[in-house]
Amino acid sequence: MSLTQTAATYEPSVRGDAMLLTHGRKGTAADLLLAAGAVVLDGALGGHIDVVGRRLLGFERRRVVAGPELPEAPPLMAELRARVQAAPPDEPWGWFDRAAGFALDGVTEELEAAGVTTPLRLSRARRVFRHDTLLVSPSAEEAAHERLLEALAGRGTQASIAVGALLDQLGLLEEVTGRREPWRLQVATLSPAAQAFLTALADQRRREAVLG
Question: Is residue 99 part of a domain?
């Protein structure tokens, strides 16, 4: 399929739109977090994984658990659920780290299969600078951008709201949209599990800022 057309098989998702909007970029910690965060947020929104417990007196008591097995789950979501089910209990932030090891490759395969991206054929030499890994269909990128703008205007789907919230937490939203605040993301409408992951990300970013 030509990359000038959006494949009908692409179903908008946090992970897919995040990669379409950033071209599967690699090279910084924020890029790894974007791919990992998008995958776990899709898992939370789709019920493939959940977050139980709560923070108590400053101590992290929340744990990520597997949701019910869903027969129609996309393979990457089924893989995420299986990994959570097989792993020792971990807090939400831990799954940003765990998912970073497989998220980008998994989403890359999904998008290529849907016909909306082509992996860039890069040399195996280590790249010091930030770089794209995907050649993206212009129409697919434009559609993802429109979904994001809807979310920023206070509308949008659960997935597009989560994309906006994730980009915002990582300091990438203005870069992707070319716009500054005010944004009217309805984050409170997301599932409790998705909100828990976003809160964990925000907490970690604040700790990193304090440390330096």
Answer: yes
DSSP symbol at 26 = B
Alpha carbons 155 and 186: distance in angstroms, whole number: 7
pTM of the model: 0.90
Does residue 118 sit in helix, strand or coil? strand
36-45 burial: b if 16+ Cβ within 10 Å, else e: bbbbbbbbbb
**pLDDT for 109-146, tens place per residue?**
999 999 999 988 765 556 667 888 899 999 999 999 99
Instruction: State how many domains the chain has.
Output: 1
Count the residues in the chain: 212
Q: Which amino acid is at 103?
A: A
For residue 85, tell me if it sits in a domain: yes
For residue 126, which amino acid is it? R
Cα–chain center distance at 100: 10
For residue 92, what are the domain limits? 14-211
Q: Please report, for the domain that includes residue 73, its CATH number.
A: 1.10.3630.10
Q: Per the domain annotation, does 1 fall within a domain? A: no
Instruction: Give the position of tokens 């599990």.
Output: 193
118 bridge partner residues: 135
